[in-house]
Amino acid sequence: MAAIAISARRRVRALPAGPRYLAGRLGQAVLALFGVTTIVFFALRLSGDPARLLVPEGASAADIERVREQLGLTDPLWRQYLSFLGGAVHGDLGFSYVQNRPATELIAERLPYTANLAVAALLLSIVFGVTVGVVTALKRGRWQERALMPVVLVGQAMPAFWTGLLLILVFSVGLRWLPSTGYDGPLSLLLPSVTLASLSAAAIARVTRGSVLEQLSRDYVRTARAKGAGTGRIVLRHLARNSAIPVLTVAGLELANLLGGAVVTEVIFAWPGLGQLTIQSVSARDFPVVQAIVVFASAVYIGINLLTDLLYGVIDRRVTVGGAA
Amino acid sequence: MNRRTMLIPLAVLVMYVVAAVFAPLLAPDDPNAVTLARRLLPPGGGHLLGTDALGRDVLSRVIFGTRISLLVAAGAVLTGGVFGVAVGVIAGWRGGRIGAVIMRLVDVVLSVPFFLLAILVVAVLGPSLLNVVVCLALVRWPRYARVAHSATLQARGRGFVTAATATGAPAWWIVLRHVLPEVLPVAIVVGTLELGLMVIYEASLSFLGLGVQPPTASWGSILSDGQQYIASAWWLAAFPGIALFVLVLAANLLGDAARDRLDPAKRTEIPKARRGTRRQARRQPA
Fold it and tell me: Which segments constitute the ABC transmembrane type-1 domain (chain A) (predicted)?
């Protein structure tokens, strides 16, 4: 037992991420990105004729024909696919015929709002989620756990748009404390970020709880206790680092999802971010923009996934080169 | 959760199924009967849950909405589940290069943000009941493929499979008789956990106007009316939400219980710290 405790403390010092692993992981990310672009390319062709999707409604047959020529839709499919990929590699994610602007420009315009909301929501959910997760794990079987676990279950089963509507009902319509929609000032950030955080916090709480519970049964915790370390010290010094990886993973996923545009929440609160842009583009039948958003969100998702993977080695030195892929 | 407490969510689920099947008998009113004279009546009186902007009975619409929710969720879970399990078993059984390629594809689909992909697919196909089911199955099958793949790999290394192979049994027979029984329990647990999520997905798509089209009642579309009239008619936002919430809670509890029974160590919740694998949390649209 003592031997295990010592080896846990004296971790193997190795490079956080070996070059070979790094290359493999990067290759994987590029492959995933390539795959996503392919899926999106073919998704737009599910309906048969993308030209019809790409022109504004009510366009004449001649207009459609012109768009078809202009976009090279008369080319064979493989050539269209290659030119789409080529564009994507150069950061060209398509052109909005409705707004007459490149799709990337539209995304860049909305991204700050979405990022604002995503970061606020993530911070809130980490604070609440980790606290609840640690408390329910430490106080297993006590009243604290019995009081908090139902909250987690409720948080998980509440659909985002219902949480949002209830918050508006109570705080905007009922109490008239907070603005319900739109973006003016930091106060308007409050309700949408709480709505989003309620989802992520439940997920983070569950994972934190599971991870801490697993670590609690380890020998090094018993050793630390035997040495007379208090609960606070054990949590901060020992558990924090060892149970951080699953929590980090989930937090990363949550951030990635939020950055892709919290569609429902943004629509409810009329938040001018990517999610709302998605829905506006869908109803305007502005498909290149929707396509571009999906590719962009996937890229963010893949990128953050890659980052969290690389961070593992920094947080927990035991995760080293040559780990099972 | 022990066996007895598991009965509660199960009973709730059965209640929803009953409400869906017998909707025409249970609903006090025609869910689509427009009577402008009685628009936006508060709950109580002749209409237990009030009426909407077109004077339609909210209780009846919520009851009929159960049909859409359950139909879409069950359809999506079954379609995605069958396809995903088939793909996962094939990849696991064949192994080698084909298996690796298939699982790479699964990884790729898992790294597309689901809800955005769902929106794109429904928008392209055009919103309808069938398209929503197809689209949800299309974005969720990799979840099943993942677990089916690893369960197949596990089964393939077991003694009874080796024994069956040694007796000269054909591959399809071994897969059906020996591998599938190992895979199905895991897939069913994932399906149960997915059920609540699919209910939320359907409601979210309907809320955005991308689900079942009016006048068909769906919880999501009633809630969308609820948002429009939030300052004057709170009941439109409240009641379909409660129906949705209770159903999802019951499905989640049941799924958790099923998973715990399958894996007493309850460790499935913790994403493994394996490097270089693409993960996807079971996450509802934000």
Answer: 111-308
Q: Which domains does chain A have, with CATH numbers?
A: 2-324 (1.10.3720.10)
The CATH architecture assigned to B66-283 reads Orthogonal Bundle (1.10)
Structure tokens at A131: 């606290």
How close does chain A come to B167, measured CA to CA in Å?
A: 34
Which chain A residue has its CA at the smallest distance from B286's CA?
A262
pLDDT higher than threshold 80 for residue A131: yes
Q: What is the ipTM of this complex?
A: 0.78
Q: DSSP labels for B2-44?
A: -HHHHHHHHHHHHHHHHHHHTHHHH-SS-TT---GGGTTPPSB
Of residues B60 and A8, the one with the higher pLDDT is B60
pLDDT at A317: 63
Our CA dihedral for A135, A141, A142, A144, rounded to 10 degrees, sits at 40
Interface of A with B in 239-258 (CB under 8 A): 245-246, 249-250, 253-254, 256-258
Is B120 close to A263, i.e. CB distance below 8 A? no
Residue from the list B220, B252, B275 with its beta carbon closest to the beta carbon of A319: B275
Chain B contact for A262 (CB, 8 A cutoff): yes
Of B107, B117, B284, the CB nearest to A159: B284
**Closest-CA residue to A27 (of A316, A219, A309, A314):** A309
